[in-house]
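Could you help me review a protein record that somebody else here produced? Do not assume that whoever made the record got everything right. The record follows directly below this note.
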Amino acid sequence: MSVLNAKECVSPLTRSVKYHQQSAEIRALQLQSYKMAKMVLDNNLKLVKDKKPAVILDLDETVLNTFDYAGYLVKNCIKYTPETWDKFEKEGSLTLIPGALDFLEYANSKGVKIFYISNRTQKNKAFTLKTLKSFKLPQVSEESVLLKEKGKPKAVRRELVAKDYAIVLQVGDTLHDFDAIFAKDAKNSQEQRAKVLQNAQKFGTEWIILPNSLYGTWEDEPIKAWQNKK
């Protein structure tokens, strides 16, 4: 484990963890996102012609609440490691993001195919499937849960879905959950922000993004500060 000093323990995760675990606002935002997702789904289903409609959702911080893992890092004054995350995938305490189950059941009732595309590890797929089934999420199967594989980034897995289905909606918590342009073509937050503006019409009509202040491309960017002239 990579041990941090006391000052680093407070930053950068402490406030983010408290916000995600304790704030009422985060729950309101999550419920609002999934309420919008239902409305967008209804609208987009009217546009489907030939293929069977499908929705794609990320898992962690989109369907599954894994903020206890970040809490574990803060409480134990350690950094993320693949080893601790591997154990969390198998044994971690999880809850559902508010609104997720309601949306998924709604999509299922509309005859929509559901795919869960996540960068959880392939070797722990059995544990992930068990977790999803324990929450009684609809359409959980080997075929519908597409996890991280070498040579198959999320964009490739989305393309596999698009071969047979009309993707009417995607739900995620990072831009990488929606399109490769935010990963391959945008190397930093500034470029990502430009891509967001270029694709503004897709947010709220094809893509629904949930809040996540724990991690992202923005982590390594400098902070802008007010220049207080004395």
User: Anything to note?
Assistant: The domain at 31-65+94-214 is CATH 3.40.50.1000 (Rossmann fold). The longest helix spans residues 24-45.
